[in-house]
Design goal:
Distance between the termini: 80 Å
CATH class of the largest domain: Mainly Beta
Strand content: 25-35%
Number of domains: 2
CATH architecture of the largest domain: Beta Barrel
Shape: elongated
Helix content: 25-40%
Largest sheet: 5 strands, mixed, barrel
Radius of gyration: 24 Å
Strand order of the largest sheet: 2-4-5-7-6
Number of strands: 7
Number of helices: 3
Mean pLDDT: 85
CATH superfamily of the largest domain: Nucleic acid-binding proteins
């Protein structure tokens, strides 16, 4: 009924479509495992069950809550409705300060305590690193 060229072309198109579909599926599946969205303290308080997987908690560092010992930093993240206590061992970013935005990545111990493995300080769109500010001659 159809010629040999038509059958080969059809087979070629089907193989390409299957390959594209499989590749897209594998890429999206691998991204799904690596994407971590941050949750606010209020969202954490509403969790039905505490999961042992890695999460991010985002909010503001509460004023007068930072406590630094020799190898550990304790502070409170707030969204002005709820709070969560955070412990972190390691160096904190330069932008980390009271009253500033922060995202902490780590594991929940319970609804009130969070053990961070990484601290990400947030800044607004007007932020300029000190080195760049000096190079431009601004104060």
């Amino acid at each position: 009924m159809y010629g040999r060229k038509v059958k080969l072309r059809f087979l070629f198109v089907v193989i390409i479509l299957i390959t594209l579909t499989l590749t897209t599926f594998l890429i999206l599946k691998s991204l799904e495992e690596n994407v971590v969205y941050f949750q606010s303290p209020s969202e954490i308080k509403l969790l039905n069950e505490i999961d042992k997987s890695k999460i991010r908690v985002g909010g503001m560092v509460k004023k007068n809550s930072i406590s630094i010992s020799s190898n550990e930093v304790n502070f409170i993240i707030t969204d002005f409705k709820n709070e969560i206590n955070v412990t972190y061992s390691g160096a904190v970013p330069n932008l980390f300060a009271e009253g500033k935005g922060v995202v902490a990545e780590g594991f929940l111990k319970d609804r009130n305590f969070f053990s961070a493995t990484k601290i990400l300080a947030k800044h607004d769109e007007n932020y300029m690193p000190p080195e760049v500010k000096e190079a431009l001659g601004e104060k």
